[in-house]
Amino acid sequence: MADRITDVWGARTPFAAGERWPMRVDQHLLVEEEQVERWVPSACVLCSNGCGMDIAVADGRVVGVRGRAEDRVNRGRLGPKGLFGWQANHSPDRLTQPLIRLDGELRPTDWDTAMAAVVDRSRQVPAEHGPLAMAFYTSGQLFAEEYYAQALIARGGIGTPHLDGNTRLCTATAEWALVESFGSDGNPGSYADIDLCDTLLLVGHNVAETQTVLWARMLDRLRGPDRPRLVVIDPRATPTAREADVHLPIRPGTNVAVLNAILHELISNDFLDREFIAEHTVGFQDLADVVAPYTPEHAGEICRVPADAIREAARVIGTGQRLVSTVLEGGCISRTRPPPRPSRSTTSICCAA
């Protein structure tokens, strides 16, 4: 296998719009393949891409992984985290028993003692201060069943609303943006839209380093015979930005200003499907009024990017027929598909790193 630490995204498998993303199975084993006793279907949870993964088992231990070829998300690929992260399970200094703090020091103990300490303390705090004194802070790397169990214990059992985690930054913000924009927090879009698009807009999303398998998919389109145009809005010259046709290295914190300016240009140049807007949207004139002052010159001063670069970004976006846009932070996928005029579609994907 190639060195996937230096060659993060692996070999290219270019493809054209409308074709299926070619398979490429990534695999890393600590034993010979014939020594694997069984492969257990699972998923990688080390970024938000959700790649299908098979776990190799021998002698009751994890001995390797491979990407699942038929999975529509990754088509067999795994990023460096998915390929190698599981090896920490075998680290000789890995914690294998619980610790309890006694006299200011963490000391090894057995599981019954540790669980009894958690239960006793969890009873003591609500008894003395009420359920609102209890709070939970959770990981963003769990499955739905685990989140359900946490919510059941915290809200239904203990009775505290204080259940938080990094998913509030990621998923909750995207959820309410989707609700306000489209009336639903569901996922009507798909990463497979990348296989069809002619334009990509990445806003604050260094996908090359945060979602390596998703970037491999984009790279394969960018290396294909009908390369989609790429606009990147990011303060840094990331690997993603270096692939861009237009890179807007805005001043941090000025995302809204540059997006307002792009909307200003889209409206000014009539890069619009007015029939779709009239039939399927509300508040368009309010939006137009808000962005009216955000000329490329005005936004350029705020964002510290050339006005002509903003115009060019808007031209690329406005003349595209099948646009996919992604943004961080977030954790949802949304899509609108206007009726043909000519055939145009827009996909927005909010991605959690």
Give a verbal description of the structure.
- By secondary structure, this protein is α/β, with parallel strands linked by helices.
- It folds into three domains: 27-90, Phosphorylase Kinase, domain 1 (2-Layer Sandwich); 110-161, no CATH class; 172-350, Dimethylsulfoxide Reductase, domain 2.
- Helix content is 35%, strand content 19%.
- It is built from twelve helices and 14 strands.
- The protein has helices at 80-84, 111-129, 144-158, 166-182, 207-210, 212-222, 239-242, 255-268, 274-280, 284-291, 296-303, 307-319; strands at residues 27-29, 38-43, 52-58, 61-67, 99-102, 105-108, 136-138, 163-165, 199-203, 229-233, 246-248, 322-327, 333-336, 345-350.
- It has a six-stranded mixed β-sheet. It has a four-stranded antiparallel β-sheet with strand order 1-4-3-2.
- The radius of gyration is 24 Å and the shape is globular.
- Residues 330-343 have low confidence and may be disordered.
